[in-house]
């Protein structure tokens, strides 16, 4: 029962401020441009961290060296929690996300202004080229790129194969890949409203060099992101 109460409190406190933040970000973004939107996004992510810690009892333990600069971060995806945490932890990351999210009124405009990287899962070669152009712009800005190579959130214990988008980015960008394993699903279950208190471990592994054959790179990444 207490976890349900905590989850309701989180819903009210976090999302009420989120609505206000979005409404404020639109005019500020028009005046201050992309730097202003990114500053608001980081503040929003830090506020999410505070709400998760205080209201839900969820905290993060970071293991390994946090990467910076142009690098491809291949992350396990179990919940919304790590998406928000990565915005707080990294330096303005370009996160590869479903194109549908970029089409949400107001929010989608802010997401594009921030510099997120939309991708159409069934868009074929044209969609891949658009994603690669956006990724190249991110690299040119000196920012890290985050991709969830399994394609979607998965329950704890599931290890689906990597989606083709990862191989396309790896080959085109010629960047080292830092794998990120995590266990957020144990406290923030997929498709569950009720969250549980606990510590989320986020482990940044050793960098995988660019230029490996596709099968070798995919095998190393798949093993590393599923190490926890």
Automatic annotation (TrEMBL):
Pathway: Lipid metabolism. SUPFAM superfamilies: Glycerol-3-phosphate (1)-acyltransferase. InterPro entries: Plipid/glycerol_acylTrfase. This is 1-acyl-sn-glycerol-3-phosphate acyltransferase. Residues 71-185 form the Phospholipid/glycerol acyltransferase domain. GO terms for biological process: phosphatidic acid biosynthetic process. Keywords: Acyltransferase, Membrane, Transferase, Transmembrane, Transmembrane helix. It comes from Sphingomonas parva. It comes from the Bacteria. The chain crosses the membrane at residues 12-32.
């Amino acid at each position: 029962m207490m976890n349900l109460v905590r989850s309701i409190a989180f819903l009210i406190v976090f999302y009420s401020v989120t609505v206000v933040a979005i409404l404020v970000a639109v005019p500020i973004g028009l005046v201050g441009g992309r730097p202003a939107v990114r500053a608001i996004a980081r503040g929003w992510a830090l506020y999410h961290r505070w709400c998760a810690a205080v209201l839900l009892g969820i905290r993060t333990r970071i293991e390994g060296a946090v990467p910076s600069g142009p690098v491809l971060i291949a992350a396990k995806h179990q919940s919304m929690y790590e998406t928000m945490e990565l915005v707080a932890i990294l330096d303005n990351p370009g996160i590869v996300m479903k194109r549908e999210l970029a089409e949400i009124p107001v929010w989608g405009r802010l997401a594009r202004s921030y510099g997120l990287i939309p991708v159409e899962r069934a868009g074929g070669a044209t969609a891949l080229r658009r994603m690669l152009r956006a990724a190249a712009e991110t690299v040119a800005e000196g920012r890290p790129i985050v991709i969830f190579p399994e394609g979607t959130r998965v329950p704890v214990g599931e290890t689906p194969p990597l989606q083709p988008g990862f191989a396309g980015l790896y080959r085109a960008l010629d960047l080292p890949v830092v794998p990120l394993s995590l266990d957020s699903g144990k406290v923030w279950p997929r498709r569950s409203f009720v969250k549980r208190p606990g510590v989320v471990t986020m482990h940044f592994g050793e960098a995988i060099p660019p230029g490996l054959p596709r099968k070798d790179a995919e095998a190393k990444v798949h093993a590393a992101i599923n190490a926890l």
